[in-house]
Amino acid sequence: MFKEYKEYDALGLSELLQKKEVSAKELLEEAIFLTETLDPLINAVPQKHFELAMAQAETNLKGPFFGVPFLLKDLHSSLEGTITSDGSRSSAKNVADFTDTLTQRCLDSGLVIFGKTNSPEFGLTVTTEPVLFGPTRNPWNLNHSAGGSSGGAAAAVAAGIIPMAQATDGGGSIRIPASCCGLVGLKPTRARTPKGPKVFEGWAGQSIAHCVSISVRDSALLLDATSGPEIGSPYHAPYQKDSFLSSLEKDPKNLKIAYIVPESISIDAEVKDVMTKTISLLESLGHSVESKSIDLPTDEIMTTIAAVISSSLANKIDEMEKQIGKNLDNTMLENVTLQMQKNGKEVLAKDYIQAVKTNHKIGYEVEKMFLDYDILLSPVLAKPPVEIGNIDLNTTDFADYAEKLSTYTPFTGIFNQSGHPSISLPLYRTPKNLPVGTMLTASFGNESLLFGLARQLEVAEPWEAAIKEMRTQIG
């Protein structure tokens, strides 16, 4: 086997392939070996397409990532002839009869897709513990959650099975698992990447796909390869003149950064310590950081999120029930999912329209902050990664579930509502060696600034050694 496999990011593997120092088949064999070795520990890859991938690896691959092993998320992604379960017993046997636009762009970039990663049911929560497949465990500590909803993707990358994996983010589902697993996780600007051709918008535009990765440059290059409108796009992100990868060469100077954590939000002491270190690091690089209140109506925001997600879910389940000719119950759906479906049925058309208008208002208020600041700074999560079982989508105690969810993840969802690009970086860890992500957010359409700053921080406070040490401990 290619023993040095884990030492490379995706672009590094691609460079080896170009030099013919290794073959696509050899890389895939190593990824499959690591899946079979490590996945029993972390439970990250429930859908395996080994034979399909091997056939792909033996073709004339092209593109910037040609021959690099890759995993899709087992949520919404469609690769013809393979199952996408959406993490739900109700969809466990759904075989795609087409390949979606984003997946095709991944294939066109040369990525070799050999499976799909674990997701909570319909991507509805911030841990990855579906009844269908069981919990995905955090490679840094197997008793802790890998985050969600892209928890399987983050665990697979952190463990070293692959250097980069597809992830999606409708309320934090790229940034949260990136934070939990010590990875780079960018949520792009609204509509930067495609969702079609069957569905062009998720959760009123709040949901978008990209990846979790070991390096900043992999995230930038994949966005170059996959971004841009598709046929039928109702709208798209602002045009990007230069490549995202080239933005890593631009060392940002004297940025004005707003630290936007309200005093009303309770933050764990270890998270506060990480933010203090982050602010010191930013200031040492010549940037200025000042505290700034963000004046948005919290209750209205929560009502808006609930209206959009629950009504979208109710619509999805209604379509499924019509297709199979019967109602779905707890034998097929988890309890919080059923409660959200019930709530969604009670959302009136006027309520949904008001929710969309509120999201647009939030976008306006957030964008106004960039008249005075270049970057917004906050933690990704209010606590380090929670233990497995702490947040349970199958609970019947809905009030307890809502309380745990809101106190754990108060920071990410607003930028799904506003549509702004936002990234989690793995700069620091707790004394118990659990990762805690730092979140940076830029103006609408300005991923380039995020990538430039992220690369600057990656050089100043590299995370490669910590990941390597963790991987050595788990095998």
Summarize the structure.
This protein is of the alpha+beta class and 475 residues long.
How many helical stretches?
Answer: 15
- By helix and strand content, what is the structural category? alpha+beta
Rg: 21 Å
Low-pLDDT residue intervals, each spanning 5 or more residues: none
State the distance separating the first and last CA atoms. 15 Å
- What is the arithmetic mean of pLDDT? 96
Number of strands: 13
Largest sheet: 8 strands, mixed
Instruction: Trace the largest sheet across and list its strands.
Output: 6-8-7-12-13-11-9-10
Shape call: globular
Task: Give the % helix.
Answer: 25-40%
Describe the protein.
This protein has about 475 residues and is of the alpha+beta class. It is about 40% helix and about 15% strand. It has 15 helices and 13 strands. It has helices at about 10-20, 25-40, 50-55, 100-110, 150-160, 175-180, 215-225, 270-285, 300-325, 335-345, 350-370, 400-410, 415-420, 445-460, 465-475, and strands spanning about 45-50, 70-75, 110-115, 135-140, 140-145, 165-170, 185, 210-215, 255-260, 290, 375-380, 420-430, 435-440. Strands 6-8-7-12-13-11-9-10 form an 8-stranded mixed sheet, with helices on both faces. A 3-stranded mixed sheet has the order 1-3-2. The longest helix is centred in the middle third of the chain and has 27 residues, at about 300-325. The mean pLDDT is about 95.
